[in-house]
Amino acid sequence: MFAALLTAWPACGLFDRPAEEAVLTVGSRSLTKEDLRAQLRTMAYEQGRADNSLPESLIQRVVDHYLVLEYGKQQGISVADEELEGVVRDIKKDYAEKDFQDLLLKGFVDYARWKEGLREQLLIRKITKKASEAIPPVSMEEIRSYYDSHPEEFRRPAMVRFRQIVTNTLEEANRLQKRLAQGGDMAAAVVGSSKVPASAGSSEPGWFAKGDLDESIEKVVFSLPVGQVSGVVETPYGFHLFEVLGKKPEGIRSLAEARTEIESKLLGEKQEAFYSRWLQELRASIPVTVHRELLKEMEME
């Protein structure tokens, strides 16, 4: 919700304006200099830009934004007032009123414009969700074909699953080792161990690949047989006792293991290709007028 607070674009006027006042006209929507400046201030804040230049890519981004909104208008897609108010409440509940107003000031937008910009953002999500229904799902054949043709992407290094106890002193580690040798439970002993740094693995069982761990730890856990508890091992992090719970040899992940990853990748590619084609169709079907002279005046002001 924080991102929505900062990136909701200020809304432009929804009514027709005299042609000489419009810097941009997209279908039935017109933007004056004031409207465009508000948009550009928000975009500059997002991107950390401070100059007044108007590169073509920036203008095209604004145009595409309103092409999508115009498409939604043609399709009768809208955001109800109660839906908008619900999202506003969800955002504001995380901020004190003063903090909320300060964030709006940082984005160079007043509350009314921000709220209408948020409506547009919600509307664009609805529109793109509706349009994306035309994207076909990724088939099992596509997943299998990608898996078969990209074997190197699914190569898996040797992995080990282990848990550990870390103490600050050798005496404490020796005492715990003796308790474990007499039948003590490693899982219970782990609860009282000190916090383990990320490079040392984790006190909770987890899978780690070669190269993920500190060398002093990796050497021990990859050489230890499954089910065996190590002797006391001193590392830069303290004094350890390790228990190896499982191992996986180096190899290729199975199709079942890689399926979700492949499906997500292929779906992302389909979505990107679809949105590119969709925007091209909108650009071709919805009239757009850019008043270049007014844009030049804005750059000089």
How are the SSEs placed, and which strands pair?
Blueprint: H1 2-7, E1 24-26, E2 29-31, H2 33-47, H3 56-74, H4 81-92, H5 97-106, H6 111-131, H7 140-149, E3 155-156, E4 159-167, H8 170-181, H9 186-191, E5 206-209, H10 215-223, E6 233-235, E7 238-248, E8 251-252, H11 255-285, E9 288-290, H12 292-300
Antiparallel strand pairs: 1-2, 1-9, 3-8, 4-5, 4-7, 6-7
Helicity, as a percent range: 40-55%
The CATH architecture of the largest domain would be Orthogonal Bundle
Strands of the biggest beta sheet: in what spatial order? 5-4-7-6
- What's the total number of strands? 9
Residue runs with pLDDT of under 50 for 5 or more positions: 1-7, 13-19
The CATH homologous superfamily of the largest domain corresponds to Porin chaperone SurA, peptide-binding domain
Order of helices and strands: HEEHHHHHHEEHHEHEEEHEH
Number of domains: 2
Which fold does the CATH topology of the largest domain refer to? Triger factor/SurA peptide-binding fold
Can you give the mean pLDDT? 84
Walkthrough of the structure:
There is one protein chain. It is built from twelve helices and nine strands. The chain starts with a helix and ends with a helix. Helix 3 packs across helix 6 (111-131) and helix 7 packs across helix 11. 21% of the residues are buried. A hairpin with a 2-residue loop joins strand 6 (233-235) and strand 7. Strands 5-4-7-6 form a four-stranded antiparallel sheet. With 301 residues, it is α+β, with helices and mostly antiparallel strands. It is elongated and about 85 Å long. The protein has two domains: 2-135 and 271-300, Orthogonal Bundle (Triger factor/SurA peptide-binding fold), CATH 1.10.4030; 158-249, Chitinase A, domain 3 (Roll).
